[in-house]
User: Which sequence fits this backbone?
């Protein structure tokens, strides 16, 4: 195995996966999806369909026990409602991490991927951190965090594993641009924080992805309950 | 909760625990023990006895699935024998991490502790990395690694969690010196890589701890099959 891709089944990680498969072959890439106790498993279903589409090995681990005790609103055991509105609107109201911040999720997931990379003799971990409002909302997606964790992983793995964050200086619409070139099957992805039949269209991540497609002059190919790109 | 202590039930982490309980109170410290699929559970048994001794909350999580596929000789599923002889002797024969290196274990464990610290509103994570042959044997115990991961955890937690590695510039005999001052119940600890009734006395970690006690002028209080401190 050459590369492990942290793979949620959303827009960013699916584009990462496409990049890894483009650089290596489908037999040299392992997609790693980590369940952490979220309210629904729509992302996992999406990730299975996409792994199947690319014909790659897909490993799913359940880490929910680690997050027991967290009040993060994405988690099944939380009493908090998932907020409505864009990241920007939410960040205007608070200086703390948002209720949708899963405690140190990226740090944890990258560490799990490192242990697995070492066991599988893979040298690279791909993950989809990028540069926009989410870096203020989620401290474990910032450039500074990425630099520090990449160094820690390189040193702590005995210089055997390197983190690749191809979008760390890019915005989501640039990710989608790259993905469209790579013919990413975005119709199979899932991002919505809610677990309904269709994506809600109103949570921060639904707003975010619709805008990213719009900036590329096209409509997001998934179905929404409410669209912000209607008639455009 | 104020502090989470990464707690294996060995000499270093038990001394860390004693430091944390000394700084805070037993109600403000949570000991976190992580099972990773090792050949025996003697360490976990020891950790339970010590947590009980200090009357602190003790959380045990099973992470063995993450290490499936690793050939590390400490793991139940590995075909490799646990090596005999000191770290120094083993390191003279190889430049790779030793077969007892559990892939990125410290990085992973610190990340798990960070997620839990955030859920429990704890601001500190204590862990027992120290400065001697083990830093060459295990890349995830070096000073440089500790600096990088501490920064990653501080940034990725939204500046809410700090890593405390009180022994990162100290040797094991200095740890034991501090522990003796704090009256650490070393008779309850377990370090041996083997899972026999008594500690084997011949694996790297058994040799290491006997020497550390000897340098402090006393015998290691646990029972060994073979001692290196006999008659001293």
Assistant:
């Amino acid at each position: 195995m050459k590369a492990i891709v942290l793979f949620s089944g959303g827009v960013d990680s699916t584009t990462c996966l496409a990049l890894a498969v483009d650089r290596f072959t489908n037999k040299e890439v392992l997609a790693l999806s980590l369940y952490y106790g979220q309210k629904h498993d729509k992302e996992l279903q999406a990730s299975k369909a996409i792994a199947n589409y690319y014909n790659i090995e897909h490993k799913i681990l359940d880490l929910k026990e680690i997050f027991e005790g967290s009040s993060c609103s994405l988690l099944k055991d939380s009493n908090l409602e998932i907020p409505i509105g864009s990241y920007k609107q939410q960040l205007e109201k608070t200086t703390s991490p948002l209720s949708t911040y899963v405690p140190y999720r990226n740090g944890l997931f990258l560490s799990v991927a490192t242990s697995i990379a070492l066991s599988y003799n893979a040298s690279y971990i791909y993950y989809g951190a990028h540069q926009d409002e989410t870096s203020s909302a989620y401290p474990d997606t910032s450039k500074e965090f990425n630099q520090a964790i990449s160094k820690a992983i390189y040193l702590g793995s005995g210089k055997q594993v390197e983190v690749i964050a191809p979008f760390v200086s890019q915005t989501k619409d640039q990710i989608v641009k790259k993905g469209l070139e790579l013919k990413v099957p975005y119709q199979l992805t899932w991002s919505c924080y809610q677990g309904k039949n269709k994506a809600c269209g109103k949570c921060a991540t639904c707003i975010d992805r619709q805008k990213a497609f719009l900036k590329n002059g096209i409509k997001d190919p998934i179905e929404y309950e409410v669209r912000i790109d209607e008639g455009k």
Q: What stands out?
A: The helical segments of chain B are 11-23, 42-54, 87-91, 105-119, 133-137, 143-156, 172-181, 204-215. The first helix of chain B runs from residue 11 to 23.
